[in-house]
Each structure stands twice: as structure tokens, then as C-alpha cells.
Amino acid sequence: QIKGFVFDLDGVIADTSIYHGKAWHQLADELGVTWTEQLGNDLKGVSRMDSLELILKTGGKENDYTLEEKEKYAAEKNTNYLNLLKDMDQSAILPGMADFIRSLEEHDYKLSLASASKNSPLVLEQLGLAQYFKNRIDPSTLKHGKPDPEIFARGAEVLGLKPEECIGLEDASAGVKSINGAGELSVGIGDPEILHEADINFTDTSQVTLDNIKKAMDVMEM
Ligand code: G6P
Ligand code: MG
């Protein structure tokens, strides 16, 4: 029986994955690494330093910089990202997600956040959704990033629930892998080809409702 929902943030609750993408694209240009849609998708859900490493590796530049230089570039990306966030408000909540979150609370489901982003407290505040997510995971305490199951396993743990009692929601392939590895039911939101490993797929957030999830689960059990 499902008792809790573990949410990714960027690209699931808010359209901030677009801002992350823009800021990384800008840095890739500066580093002389060709930006592709594939690279943009592969970066989704991946931590700040792992993202930089992936960009450098894609451009064959993984050995070109010292740790200090890499930290400088990662900080520069974050400054650009924070600039893009400056005017963000509730209008950045993806279609239907505010209603979905409220309906879960009304039905007494427990909610937690499994975002790799160190900026997630700020984003939730700006979206006006902080009160729904009292159970969070500090990403700096994680040993492994997505696709490792650690973050979604912790998402269930902080709710006092077993993984099989939780549904995880993700827009990233790495995130769906993390949910599956943790033993939760995975809901992928976005291109079904990219998220083919998800138990349930919705092409966009407006389809994410309790009713639609229940319907999809009924079909699975047949
Ligand atoms: C999320 C986003 C990624 C981002 C990561 C770290 O997983 O999907 O695009 O790189 O968080 O975010 P941060 O805000 O800590 O740099
Ligand atoms: Mg995401």
C-alpha cells in the first residue's frame, strides 16, 4: 500500500531544469564544449560537480583543469543559475503540480524531497511550497548522486516508510534509475523514450494526478 511520495524538484515541481540547462550551456560554450540535446538530458538530476565533470569529459577535457579551476567553474555556473532564479515565483510551478501536492496532503500521504540541488530550499521558498516539504535530504550528506539509489532510499527513510510504500517522481533518466534501485514505484515525467525504465510514464506534469496514478497502478496489477 502506497503511503508516501518522494519528489524530485527541478523539472518535476518547477521548471528550473530549464535554468540549470541554460547555465550549463553557457559554461559549456565558455569551455569550448559542443552543447547537444543529449548532453542536456544526461545532465538532468546530476549533481553540480558531476555535471561539470560530464561536460569536460564530453569535450575530451577531463584532464585539462585543476580541482581549484573546476570549483571556480562550478561556482560560476551557480552564480548564473541564481541570476536566472532571481525573479522566479509561483508561476514557475509546473502545470498541475501545486494541486497535486495539495491533494496528496488532503489524503494524508507523506511527502519528501529527493533533490540533488543545494539550491532546493531557496527554490521551494520562492515557489511558496516549502511548508509541504518538511522532510528533505541535505544533498551534501550523500555519498553517491543519482542514478545511485541512495537519495530515493533516504527519501523513504525520512518518512519512516519502506521503499515499497513509496512512489518516486522524476523527470530524469538518472533519477528513474535511482527510484527503481531503491525499490520504489517510479513515475517518469517527460519523453517516454528517455524515461523508458519508469514503471509509469506521463508526458507532462498536467497528467500527474492521484486518479491517473491509481489507474496506471490498476493496469500494472492485471
Ligand atoms: C538537480 C538538477 C541538476 C543540478 C543538480 C545540482 O538534480 O536536476 O540539473 O545540477 O540538482 O543542483 P545545484 O543547485 O546544487 O547546483
Ligand atoms: Mg529533475
TrEMBL record:
Q: Which Pfam families match?
A: Hydrolase
Recorded GO terms, molecular function?
beta-phosphoglucomutase activity; magnesium ion binding; sugar-phosphatase activity
Which parts of the sequence bind substrate? Answer: 8-10, 24, 43-48, 51, 77, 115-119, 146
Q: How is the cofactor bound?
A: Binds 2 magnesium ions per subunit.
User: Does this UniProt record's set of keywords contain Metal-binding?
Assistant: yes
Keyword Metal-binding in the entry? The reply is: yes
The similarity annotation says:
Belongs to the HAD-like hydrolase superfamily. CbbY/CbbZ/Gph/YieH family.
Q: Spell out the protein name for this chain.
A: Beta-phosphoglucomutase
Q: To which species is this protein native?
A: Companilactobacillus nodensis DSM 19682 = JCM 14932 = NBRC 107160
